[in-house]
Amino acid sequence: MSRLIVKTATCEYKTNPIGTDSLKPRGPGLQSRTRYYYRIRVWDQQGRTSEWSETAYWETAFLGTDEWVADWITADMSADKTKSEPAYLLRKSFSIQGTVAKARIYATSLGVYELHLNGGRVGDALLTPGWTSYNKRLQYQTYDVTSLLQDGGNAVGVILGSGWYKATLGWKGEKSLFGDIKAALLQLHITYEDGSEVVIASDSSWKAETGAILISEIYYGESYDARLEKAGWNCADYGDEAWRVVTLLDHTKETLVAQENLPTRVIQTIKPVSVFTTPAGDTVLDMGQNMVGWIHFQVKGSPGHKITLQHAEVLDKDGNIYLGNLRSAKQTIEYICKGGSQESYEPHFTFQGFRYVKVEGYPGELSLDNFRGRVIHTDMEPTGSFECSDPLINQLQSNIVWGQKGNFLDIPTDCPQRDERLGWTGDAQVFIRTAAFNMNVASFFTKWLKDLKADQLPDGGVPFVIPNILEGDHSSSAWGDAAVICPWTVYLCYGDVRVLEEQYESMKAWVEYIRKQGDNEFLWNSGFHFGDWLGLDAKENSYIGATPKDLIATAFYAYSTRLFAQTAEVLQRAEDAREYRRLYEQIVQNFRCEFVTPNGRLAADTQTAYALALMFDLVEGEVKKRVAKSLAGHIEENKFHLTTGFVGTPYLCLVLSENGYHDVATKLVHQQEYPSWLYSVNKGATTVWEHWDGIKEDGSFWSDDMNSFNHYAYGAIGDWFYRVVAGIDMDEKQPGYKHILIRPQLMEGLSYARASLKSMYGEIASGWEVSGASDGIDNGSGKRDSATEESSKHIKVKVTIPVNTTATVELPSASLEAVSEGASGEKISQIVGVVDSKQAEGMVILELTSGSYEFSYLM
Q1: Structure letter (DSSP) for residue 126
Q2: CA distances (Å), 48 to each of 9, 38, 315, 803, 848, in order?
Q3: Would the pLDDT of 10 be above 60?
Q4: Is 487 in contact with 441 (CB distance < 8 Å)?
Q5: Would you state the pLDDT for residue 49?
């Protein structure tokens, strides 16, 4: 069993885990456009040293906006009345004389762009520069093009589309919310071997024209006429004499920031599983998976022949393609053939959410081999996995992951198909912990939170969506609280204090915003709130559940205040820590006075009210026990069905398991009847739905108005799978999984469950197996099957603890004398790496150093 202690051999910057200055300069200052190399070696506790790693590097971009010498350029196409919002082609030819040592392009746009050089596309990033609060923050990208330049003639080009900047956004059909002119900005820095440098920048010498992309927008889709392609437009020898001169645009460069998030890319390619004819006579492809991206296809047709693709998530009860839930979004691709040989096509500046594709006009026999689905999302590293013996739960976990893939497209969107696709704050905060298990979302949320801070109102209020495109109401509880919950969660999961430093004033401003509301600074009982959105206990024709809005608001007020006080403690802001700890205590006291009766009964008899009171520690002692019992009783009375919406659902199973009702949580998750997580699975869902009954038992739909079949909020149950069932958790006093808590709770009806997580220290794994136990699943009645009444069960628990960490492991239903090492049979006292062990009520608690372990015992 090897255990290594990893240390950097040398470093220019040292990360300080606690303190206001997280980066302590220990070397020369950084320079712009410079590559810095490093290598690493490690040694263990015996002093044995490894070889040096291979040399790696990182590179700076511009360290100041004054380094931009390029002009914003656009095209004046006002005289062209034949096209609707065509994409622009912008190009410039130039010559190189000499040997190039290095070359970098720095580029961005007002809109979205593709970069081209010498006949081909540069890089594989999609929808660049991504979506930010453009008027305050605009990313630019850096490209290493050293190997793409050639001696003599060269040509650089940009295809420029409308994107989020100029196209229609939101359900009101508004366009140009950030600006009404799309433009590009580009600098190519060429350094020769003799050290001299040449800069090719976007300026008045560039040329502009339109091409085959007639329109390409987020909601609309794309219309592409291949007959209008400008073959070789991105090559040096292309004749652009008839092209127009570009127009310079007076636009600021002060908002420019280097790329912060990982780019959006094609992550996966899938083949359709079938093609069929619907009762309405439509030819439809089934991709087998509700996905986000587009279709790549090959076709051979006559000049001017048009193929149309319409994208949909589900079929209606008659088996026809269902487009109603798209609202005004078209999700349509139109391709007009050039003619002649076989043609290949995929869209440029749009994306669709779909499983089914209605194909019209395809010439000849439609072969599945000619169609592929390109799955796109932010290129986040997969970090977590969860698996168990129940195939329905495994499908649910797959649905959660696919929901994250489909909605983590540069920002955390609410849905990928209809005329929305916005960064709703409430959805993001309820799912972020699950998201951080499935994938590395550190840079993803760090970038998005900077936009939250940028769009935050002067009084500290937080818009409903980030980037903000909605005017009017703002700052709902549970939505605006993303300003505090999200940075705190990123800090916990990755141990990087910088996100707290970056967001500190934003977090504080949000708490102060709430504090100023109403006539009691310790309650939040005023303003607009979404409440328990889509709660099933809502009144008829209402989206808002029955839990009182002021109870929800005050609960989240307490939670955000507590997290902010903890943030101040981490950053050693002692005065703020004291003040906001006192404020938190006052809020809790007022919550109890307002919403808890003298006899300890919660004022609102709803599952969400109970869940929030327990999750946010708003009740204690005997009152807490009564609230937990009331929650469990409420669920049992509902025959193990939930009634919660967006606010209560993420916490429901967590608080049940934490407060002695894990069996009730287990029955909730095993429930297959509506409403339940597994209801949609049995209906064939491959992503998480927005509504528990998006498709009803009879095959009809909940509503056309708001019925996404790819909406990750209810996927927050994934947090419970990882933290409770598999048991991977952390000591919050040592964030980033420096000290790991492994506390699995066996789940009735499962013979095994296991999970893994690639932490910043390495892979953590936890899993258990039960032999001699029934696999019978409770039917929701609350009664166990007789087959589960075993006199004894054999338990195996396997864990992996990475180097430079320690762990506390709780073995459920174990006695100290019965636990042994799985392979060797050694007793706990003999197992290397077990530094402490003790018997507790209903469990054995072990303290471990790094390594892989297997514990075996009878329960």
Answers
A1: B
A2: 14, 21, 62, 15, 22
A3: no
A4: no
A5: 93
Quote the Cα angle for 628-630-633, to 5°: 110
Four-residue CA torsion sign, 493, 495, 501, 507: positive
Peptide bond into 744 cis (omega under 30): no
H/E stretch holding 512: helix 498-515
Residue pair 317/694 in contact (Cβ under 8 Å)? The answer is no
Q: For residue 728, what are the β-bridge partners?
A: 742
The pLDDT value given to residue 792: 80
The amino acid that residue 229 corresponds to is: E
CA–CA separation, 757 and 718 (whole Å): 13
Report the distance separating Cα 804 and Cα 740, nearest Å.
Answer: 11
Q: For 603-634, how does the pLDDT look when each residue is reduced to its tens digit (9 = 90+)? A: 999 999 999 999 999 999 999 999 999 999 99
Taking the C-alpha atoms of residue 131 and residue 138, their distance in angstroms, rounded to an integer, is 8
Q: What is the pLDDT of residue 24?
A: 56
Residues contacting residue 68 through CB under 8 Å, at least 6 positions apart: 62, 185, 187, 253, 256
Helices (H) and strands (E) in the chain, counts: 14, 42
Secondary structure element (H or E) that encloses residue 858, with its range: strand 851-858
Which residues have C-beta within 8 Å of that of residue 235, sequence separation ≥ 6? 118, 119, 155
Per-residue 3-state assignment (H helix, E strand, C coil) for 603-669 = CCCCHHHHHHHHHCCCCCHHHHHHHHHHHHHHHHHCCCCCCCCCCCHHHHHHHHHHCCCHHHHHHHH
CB neighbourhood size of 575 (10 A): 8
Q: What is the pTM of this model?
A: 0.94
For the stretch 124-169, pLDDT in tens is 999 999 999 999 999 999 999 999 999 999 999 999 999 999 999 9
Helix boundaries (H) for 548-618: 549-570, 574-595, 607-615
CA 435 – CA 406 distance, rounded (Å)? 12
- Give the containing element (helix H, strand E) for 501: helix 498-515
Q: Produce one character per residue of 104-142: b if its CB has 16 or more CB atoms within 10 Å, e if not.
A: bbbbbbbbbbbbbbbbeebbebbbbbbbbbbeebbbbbb
Alpha carbon distance, N-terminus to C-terminus of the chain = 27
State how far the Cα of 717 lies from the Cα of 309, in Å rounded to an integer: 35
Cα(282)–Cα(287) distance, integer angstroms: 16
- Rounded to 5 degrees, φ, ψ at 643 are -130, 10
Cα gap 351→370, rounded to integer Å: 19
> Which pLDDT belongs to residue 786?
37
User: Which residues are part of the catalytic machinery?
Assistant: 420, 690
Burial tier of 411 (Cβ tally within 10 Å: 0-12, 13-18, 19+): buried
Strand 256-258 to strand 138-144: parallel, antiparallel, or no bridges (unpaired)?
parallel
H/E stretch holding 356 reads: strand 352-360
- pLDDT-derived band of residue 791, with 50, 70 and 90 as boundaries? low
CA 806 vs CA 276, 779, 830, 851: distances in Å: 55, 40, 18, 9
